[in-house]
Structure prediction request, 176 residues.
Amino acid sequence: MVSILSFIIIILIISILCFLSGRRMAENRAAKNQNAENRTNGNRTAQSINHFLMRHPVMVKGLLLFYIAFAGCFTFPIRSQPFPLDFTKAYLLICSYGIIGWGFAGLYGKAKERAVYPLTLLMTILGMVCRYVLEYGEASNVYNFTMLNILSYIILIPAFTVGAYHYIVKYLISAR
Prediction:
C-alpha cells in the first residue's frame, strides 16, 4: 500500500511540474504576442519554481518520459493468471496514465495527439523491456509476458493516455 501511495505521489509531482511548465510557456507566448509585461502571480517560492521550469523545459519533458517508462515497467501487465485485475490495480492504472495525459496537456497544449501517442507507445514499450530484463529468468515472465498481455498493454495504455490528454485539453483546459 505504501508503494502505491508513493507511486501516486511521484506521478502527481511530475505531472504538476509538467502542467505548470506548459502553462507558463503558453502564458509567456500570449504575453509576448500582446506585447504585455510577463507577470507571475503567487509567492516567491512559486515564482522561483515557475522560473526554473521555464528555463528547463527539456528536463520537465524528460521527467515525464521517464515516468511513462517507469509506469510501463511497474504497472505491466494489466492482469495475469495469479494476479487478476482488481480495483486497486485499475485505480492505479487510471490515475497513472490519466496524470500522464495531464502532463502532456500541460507540456504540449492543444491538438498534439500525433506527438503524444508515439511517445507514450515508445516509452511504454521501453518500460516493458525493462520489466522483462528485471525479471529475466524468473517464473513470472512466463505468465506475465504472454501475447495477450503484451498486445493488450501496448494497445490500451497509449490509447487511454491519448484519450485522457484529449479530454483534458478539450474540456478542462479550454474551459478556463
